[in-house]
């Protein structure tokens, strides 16, 4: 007694629209469909972040975990999280011609926020 139902094979019917394509055209169609399928994931990764990711970036920039936590909270409170916490620190360092570390410590001490926001074109 066979417990498994046999699947009707409709491969020949489903591939009808592909049968006249060359190998090159099939490759192009494949990559086009692959791009179309993965683009939403790429967009999601590009446009979204999390406090954990931002803390991780700041840790790699040399800040302690407590400093990174404080910076990320302040970046969120100033509505700049979409810019990235590391980018915010980097931007202030370039604007004030100071080290990354000094820029981060300034932001922790509430120095430079308006300048950074202005540089990003963000209204207060």
Give me the secondary-structure topology.
Blueprint: H1 11-14, H2 23-47, H3 51-60, H4 65-77, H5 85-96, H6 100-108, H7 113-120
Helix pairs in contact: 3-4, 4-6, 5-6, 5-7
Which key features would you list for this structure?
124 residues; mainly alpha; Helicase, Ruva Protein, domain 3; 0% strand; elongated
Q: Could you write a compact summary of the structure shown?
A:
The protein has 124 residues and is mainly α. The protein contains seven helices and no strands.
Describe the structure.
With 124 residues, the protein is mostly helical. It has a domain at 51-120: Orthogonal Bundle (Helicase, Ruva Protein, domain 3), CATH 1.10.8. The protein has helices at 11-14, 23-47, 51-60, 65-77, 85-96, 100-108, 113-120. The longest helix is centred in the N-terminal third of the chain and has 25 residues, at 23-47. The radius of gyration is 25 Å and the shape is elongated. The model has no long low-confidence stretch (mean pLDDT 91).
CATH top level label of the domain at 51-120: Mainly Alpha
- CATH H-tier superfamily of the domain at 51-120: Ornithine 4,5 aminomutase S component, alpha subunit-like
Total count of helical runs of at least 4 residues: 7
Strand content: under 5%
First-residue to last-residue Cα separation: 73 Å
Provide the structure class.
Answer: mainly alpha
Q: Report the CATH topology name of the domain at 51-120.
A: Helicase, Ruva Protein, domain 3
Give the second-level CATH assignment, the architecture of the domain at 51-120: Orthogonal Bundle
Flag low-confidence runs: none
Q: Could you say which overall geometry the principal axes of the C-alpha atoms support?
A: elongated
The biggest beta sheet is recorded as: none
Helix content: 55-70%
Beta strands, count: 0
Mean pLDDT: 91
Radius of gyration: 25 Å
N-to-C SSE string, H for helix and E for strand: HHHHHHH
